[in-house]
Amino acid sequence: MFVPRAPQFYIYGEVQHPGAFRLEKTMTVMQALSVGGGLTGRGTQRGIKLRRRDATGGIETLDAKLTDLLHADDVIYVQESLF
């Protein structure tokens, strides 16, 4: 019997618990950050990048807003605050 893999997203950078997590329906970037334990003391909400596959299979990098919806296999990167 074949059981399909649950959709996932990935988060790394300045978060408490980086890694791969299960993607829930209509999950936002803000909800994903909370699943990752929130930002570290050095993380910044202004430096969140979202990497996603486009229609051609290439990777595009977007400046993420907290209200953006995630897609399967999205990668969230939280940058370090410079101040």
Order of helices and strands: EEHEEE
Report, as a whole number of angstroms, the end-to-end distance: 53 Å
The whole-angstrom Rg is: 13 Å
Average pLDDT number: 94
Major beta sheet, specifics? Answer: 5 strands, mixed
Salient structural properties:
83 residues, 8% helix, mainly beta, Outer membrane lipoprotein wza fold like
Report on the structure:
By secondary structure, the protein is mainly beta. It has a single domain, classed as Outer membrane lipoprotein wza domain like (Outer membrane lipoprotein wza fold like, Roll), CATH 3.10.560.10. The chain is built from 1 helix and 5 strands; from the N terminus they run E-E-H-E-E-E. The protein has a 5-stranded mixed β-sheet with strand order 2-1-5-3-4, with helices on one face. The longest helix is centred in the middle third of the chain and has 7 residues. The model has no long low-confidence stretch (mean pLDDT 94).
Q: What is this structure's SSE topology?
A:
Layout: E1 8-13, E2 19-22, H1 29-35, E3 43-53, E4 59-63, E5 75-80
Parallel strand pairs: 1-5
Antiparallel strand pairs: 1-2, 3-4, 3-5
Question: What is the gist of this entry?
Answer:
With 83 residues, this protein is mainly beta. It contains one helix and five strands.
